[in-house]
Write a structure and sequence with these properties.
The structure is a homodimer. Chain A is an alpha/beta fold. Chain A has 2 domains: 160 residues, Beta Polymerase, domain 2 (2-Layer Sandwich); 139 residues, NAD(P)-binding Rossmann-like Domain (Rossmann fold). In chain A, 54% of the residues lie in helices and 15% in strands. Chain A is built from 16 helices and 10 strands. In chain A, strands 7-6-5-8-9-10 form a 6-stranded parallel sheet. The longest helix of chain A has 42 residues. The two termini of chain A are 36 Å apart. At the A-B interface, helix 13, helix 14, helix 15 and helix 16 of A face helix 13, helix 14, helix 15 and helix 16 of B.
Chain lengths: 383, 383
C-alpha cells in the first residue's frame, strides 16, 4: 500500500483547500483511478485537515511509477500544478503507510491529538471506496484493522473525552447546565476566546446565543452571517442579562464588564444562573455570588481542569499508543501471512516429510545466525 | 565471552610493554585465573602489538563484575596501576567479542592488514590454555572456528602473500636471486629504507650483509650489536662492490653513489649482479646496465609493483571479509544453538504433538510481525 498525503503537518489551509474533494468528487476520482487499470485498490480521504489517497498498484504497475501516475491523476483532477503537490505532500509505502493509516484513523495525526471525528471520516471514506468496489484484500484488511483499533481506543481510553482547551471546557459546562432551553449571553463575542466559545455552541440544540461587541461593523456582519444568533451592543448587556441562564464574559477590558450593583438591579427573575469569567484581568465582580441563584466560575477554575486533563490525556495517549502498536503488529502479520499463503500447501507437504524433531536441525542448516536466534526463540514459545 | 584488549589501536609500544606476558607468565596467569573459581575459561594472547584476555565468567559471576575482577587480576599480576589499564584498554562482549576474535585471528586487526604471523600466535595462545584445561565449550568452539577461518583465508586468498611495502618487495627480490650464498651490499644502511631492508634480510639463511654509512658512531654501534654483519665506511664501498651479488642503494644523497665509470673499474669478476636503486633522486647511474651481467631495478619498478599489489590486496581483503562473515555467522549459530540444546527434547516433544501443517499457524499465533516474517522466510527455504 502507498499513501500520498497532503496534511496540516506541511500544507497551509489554502493549499489544503486546493486539494479538497467533495463527496461527489471523491466518487468521481475513485472511478477514474479504477478505470485506469493500473491500480488494484484506492481509498480517498478528504477532511479540512488533510487530503490522502491510499492505493495499491496492480502487479504490473508496482514501484515508483505508480506513485508518479497517481500524482498526475490527482493534480489533473484538481486542476493544480504538479509542483504544488510535490512541494506539500508526503508519500509513505509498505510498513510506513500502514503505520500512517493507523496513526490517522486513531487521531494521532490530528491537530488535536486523540480527537475521534477523524474515525467517522475514515469510515466514510473506506465505505465509499468499498461500495464502488475500489477495495480488495489489502485495503479491506488494513482499513478494517485501523478502524477496529480506533474504536477500541475510543471505548477503552478517555483520550477523546478529555478536553484541554478552555473554550471546549467552558462549552461543555454550558451543555451540562440543566434546563430545556439554555439562553447564553457572551460578552466580548468577537474576541478570540468569545469566537471559539460561540463556534462551540452555535447550532447546538436548545441553545440560544446572544453576543455583545463594541464594534458596530462586527455586529452587523455577524447578524447577517449567523442565523438564530442575536448580536447586541456591549452597552445593552444589562438589558439582556435577566433572561440569560448562562453569562460568559471574555473581553480584554481592564474594567469589570459586570458589577454586583448593576447586576442586582437588572435581575428580576429568580432562577439558577451560571457566570463564567474567562478573562484576565477579571471581568466579573466576585461579589455577585451573594445574589441568590448566582454561581461563578473563573478562568483559574478552567485552567486547573485543563492542567489535570492534560496530564490525564498524556497517560491516555501512552495507553493508546500501546493499543496501536498491538493492532498494527497484528495487521502487519496478516499482510505478511497473506503473501505467504500461495506457498503454504507446498511448504506443508515439505514439512510433513520431515520428523518434527529433525525440523529444527533442517531449519538451522538453512538459517543465518539472526534467523536461527528468532526461530529458536519462537519454537521455545511452544512449551 | 568477554575480551579485554590492550592493542596498537590505542596503546603505544611503551604501554603495551607494561602488559607483555612471557610464555611462563601466560601459564602462571592462566592458572591464577582458573584457581580463582570465578571463571569458566580463559585464553591469554600476548604479542608485540597486543595483550588480550579472552574469558567466560562462571554463571554465578556473570556480568560487569567479572570484567572488573579480571582488570584487577591483570593489573595486580603485571604490577601496574588500574588507571593505566582503564585508559588504554577496550572491552568487548557477546557478538562483538566473537567478531573481535575473528578479526584478530585473521590479521584484520593487525598493523599490516592480512599478515598471518598472528595466526600462529593465536594458535599457540589457544593451545597453551587448552593444555592447562582453561578452555571449555565456548572458547574451544570460537577459537577453533576463528583459526579454521584464518587458515582458509591464508590458503584461498593472496592476502598475506601480497606485500605493498617497498622494503618487503626489495627483500623478496633478494630471496629470489639465484646462488647458494648471496652477498648483499646496502649503501645507506642506517637510513630509514636501509634499516627496513637490513631488518628484512638480517639473520636469514645464506645471506651475508655488508652495510655502509657516513656516520662513524652508527658504524661502531651496528658492528657491536649485529653479529655476522659487516659495517664499512661509505667511502670504502667500491672496495667491496666486486664481491657483492646484490647492491642496494637507499641514500638521500643528491649525488650518484655509484657511477658507471667507477663501477666498471671496480668489477673484476664475471657474474650476474643485481642493483636496486631505492632512492629519489636516483643513486645509481643508469649507464651501468651496459656492463656485462649487471641488472638494475629502480624505485619506479617497485612502486609500480606496490600499486598493483595494493589493488590486489584490496580485492583480497574484500574476499577475506566475506569469508570471515560466513565463518563468523556459523560460529554464532553454533553458540546460539548450544544454549538452546537443554530445551530441545521438550520442544521436540511439543512439536511431535502438532501436525506439521498446523505448526506454522501455531507459531504464527505466538509471533510478532518481525518474527513471523523471519519464520516464513525460513520455512520457505525447505522447498
Amino acid at each position: 500500500m502507498y499513501v500520498i498525503s497532503i496534511s496540516h503537518k506541511i500544507a497551509t489551509v489554502e493549499i489544503r483547500e486546493r486539494f479538497s474533494f467533495s463527496k461527489e468528487e471523491q466518487e468521481e476520482f475513485l472511478r477514474l483511478v479504477m478505470d485506469q487499470g493500473h491500480y488494484e485498490e484506492c481509498v480517498i480521504l478528504s477532511t479540512c485537515n488533510r487530503c490522502e489517497v491510499y492505493f495499491t498498484p496492480s502487479p504490473a504497475n508496482a514501484g515508483f511509477e505508480a506513485v508518479q501516475e497517481m500524482e498526475k491523476l490527482l493534480t489533473e483532477f484538481k486542476k493544480t500544478e504538479l509542483s504544488l503537490l510535490l512541494k506539500y505532500f508526503l508519500v509513505y509505502n509498505e510498513e510506513k503507510a500502514i503505520q500512517h493509516l493507523f496513526s490517522v484513523t486513531c487521531g494521532m495525526d490530528s491537530m488535536v491529538i486523540g480527537e475521534d471525528e477523524i474515525l467517522g471520516q475514515v469510515k466514510d471514506a473506506y465505505t465509499r471506496a468499498l461500495n464502488l468496489k475500489a477495495t480488495k484484500y489489502m485495503l479491506n484488511t488494513l482499513f478494517q484493522a485501523a478502524i477496529t483499533c480506533a474504536k477500541r481506543i475510543k471505548t477503552d481510553t478517555r483520550l477523546s473525552k478529555t478536553p484541554v482547551s478552555i473554550g471546549t471546557l467552558a462549552a461543555n459546562e454550558v451543555f451540562r447546565f440543566g434546563g430545556d432551553i439554555k439562553r447564553v449571553l457572551i460578552i466580548g463575542m468577537t474576541g478570540k476566546m468569545g469566537t471559539i466559545i460561540m463556534k462551540n455552541l452555535y447550532g447546538k440544540e436548545n441553545i440560544q446565543i446572544t453576543g455583545t461587541s463594541r464594534n458596530h461593523n462586527s455586529i452587523e456582519i455577524i447578524n447577517r452571517e449567523y442565523r438564530n444568533l442575536r448580536m447586541i451592543d456591549f452597552k445593552e448587556r444589562y438589558e439582556y442579562i435577566d433572561e440569560a441562564d448562562i453569562v460568559i464574559s471574555a473581553t480584554t477590558s481592564p474594567h469589570y464588564t459586570i458589577t454586583c450593583k448593576e447586576l442586582s438591579e437588572s435581575i428580576r427573575t429568580g432562577k439558577e444562573r451560571l457566570f463564567l469569567d474567562l478573562s484576565v484581568p477579571l471581568d466579573i465582580d466576585r461579589e455577585i455570588t451573594k445574589i441568590n441563584g448566582v454561581n461563578l466560575h473563573d478562568i483559574d477554575f478552567y485552567q486547573q481542569i485543563s492542567r489535570q486533563n492534560f496530564e490525564l490525556k498524556e497517560q491516555e495517549t501512552i495507553r493508546a499508543a500501546q493499543m496501536i502498536e498491538e493492532h498494527l503488529d497484528n495487521a502487519k502479520k496478516e499482510v505478511i501471512f497473506h503473501s505467504f499463503l500461495p506457498d503454504l500447501p507446498d511448504i506443508g507437504n515439505a514439512m510433513e516429510k520431515i520428523r518434527p524433531a529433525n525440523l529444527i536441525y533442517e531449519l538451522k542448516d538453512r538459517a543465518n545466525s539472526e534467523e536461527l536466534s528468532v526461530m529458536l526463540q519462537l519454537v521455545r514459545k511452544l512449551l
